[in-house]
Every structure is written in structure tokens, then in C-alpha cells.
Amino acid sequence: MTIEEGQDVLLYVNERKSWILKVEKGKKFHTHKGIVELDEVIGKQFGVELKTSMGLPIKIMPTDYLDHLERLARKTQVIYPKDIAMITLLANVRPGSRVVECGTGSGSLTSYLASHVQPNGTVYTYECREEFQKIARKNLEKMGLLGNVVMKLKDINEGIDEKDVDAIVLDMATPWQVVGIARESLRIGGRLVSFSPTINQVEKTVEEMRSKGFLAVKAIELIMRTYKVKANETRPDMVMVGHTGYIVSGRKG
User: I need a surface site. Which of 110, 135, 148, 180 has the fewest CB within 10 A?
Assistant: First the structure.
């Protein structure tokens, strides 16, 4: 694949150091190890290796969803990718799905949901705070996903405008308060999934879902650890992300 002017590219040094840039004629990128002349990559194939003015080798790679996700502008705590993936699976989000989300935050979960409903599905995302919504809109624009997202500046406690949706995903402090509202907007068999950091929130949410007639209600927690891999020295990393949150899910019966 040939690199063209106006494309986003990933300048990759190693797993700890990389950047996303738009290729423009005459543009220079300054690193701690010298300058990269972006003119040099136009017309070349992805995977080409350049050297900075100080001799640092940099590989030019195409960008993908995960590259952008790691660099989202944020003012809020974002959900970790391990939880985002499971939430999307439990909500049964697929191409063409109509999904309601609350709240938008910085748009990390929104972006993943939007990438899965393409090409003709929609994510309706509710957010109370305008400053968060503005950040999320910019992030979604950068990722090319805004076309599958309808952004709403509204408190979901006041009601959900959409009806017969396939899934509702909650990332809010008091999810149990909107379980009844969510049920009214879900189609039969539609799925409600909630993410919460504390077990007290889980208890209230599960009890409310069961009282409102949701089926197959369950709560899970995902723990992931990474490994240091080196010949004859492979072992779990000394530092890991432990608890991030709990996921509650169920179906409208």
C-alpha cells in the first residue's frame, strides 16, 4: 500500500515510543533523537524504514483502531480495552445494531461500539456534560467513526428517546436507577450491560434488573496480566493492572 499525502501514519520506534502524524509536504517532525522529513515517505510503501537526522531508525506503518484508541484525548477515566471488548460481546453488538450508551465520557467505549455497528448501525450516546461531549466528538472525528454515532446532551434519567434498540450500555454512577427506563427502550431479547467500579453498585444493579424481569443476569470481573517474554527468562510482569471494574449483563424477557 502506497503512502499518500494527507494520510495518517504511525512512526514506530519501539513498543514504548511511537507517534501518529498526518503526511504533508514540507512537514518536519522533531523527536528527541533528531528530525524526520515527512516528504521522504510520500509515494513509498508502508513498512519503509527512515532515519532521523541523528540516525534513529523509524518504521512507517499504517494506523489502525488501537493506535488511535491509545492516544484519545481524555478528561475522564476511560474503560480498559479488556473490559470494552467484553462489554461489546455481552451486548451482542454487531453490524447494523442500534445501541444506546450512557455516558459518553471521552468516547473510548463509544468508538469501539461504533466500529462494530458499521456500516449501517448506530450508537446513540448520552452525556450530561458538554465539555466531555466536545472532547468525545473530536476523538470520534479523528477515528472516522462519527458517522455511526448520534451524540445527545441529555440526562438519561429523563428518558431514552430511542425504542426497540438492540442493546443499552451503561457507564454511570447509579445504573440501577435507569434499569426500568432501559427496559422500556429495549426490544424483546435485547441486552443491558453495565460497567461499575464497586461491588455495591453491582448488588443494586443486579437486584433491580432481576426485579424488572431481566433474564440471565450475571456479574463478572476480568483480570488480565501481561508477561515479560525473553529466552529463558519468561515470567509474568512485576507490575499489572488489577481491579478495573465489574460488568453486569442481562436480557429483556
Answer: 180
Q: Which amino acid is at 216?
A: A
Q: List beta partners, residue 59.
A: 12, 49
What is the grid cell recorded at 91? Answer: 451486548
Phi-psi label, residue 248: left if phi above 0, alpha if psi -120 to 50, beta otherwise: beta
| Contact residues for 2 (Cβ-Cβ < 8 A; gap 6+) | 43, 44, 45, 46
Predicted TM-score (pTM) of the model is 0.84
CA atoms within 13 A on the CB side of 71: 16
Using left for φ > 0, alpha for ψ between -120 and 50, and beta otherwise, residue 207 falls in: alpha
Rounded Cα distance between 50 and 4, Å, is: 16
All domains of the chain in start order, with CATH? 8-63 (3.10.330.20), 68-252 (3.40.50.150)
Could you tell me the CA-to-CA distances from 73 to 87, 105, 109, 155, 251 in Å, in that order? 22, 11, 13, 23, 33
Q: Report pLDDT digits (tens) over 4-54.
A: 888 889 999 888 888 888 888 888 888 887 888 888 888 989 999 888 888
**Beta carbons within 10 angstroms of residue 15's beta carbon:** 6
Distance CA 75, CA 93 (A): 26
Please write the tens of the pLDDT for every residue from 63-114.
Answer: 887 888 777 766 667 799 999 999 999 999 999 999 999 999 999 999 999 9
C-alpha cell at 152: 445527545
pLDDT-above-70 percentage for the chain = 98
| pLDDT, tens digit (0-9, with 9 covering 90-100), for 208-230 | 999 999 999 999 999 999 999 99
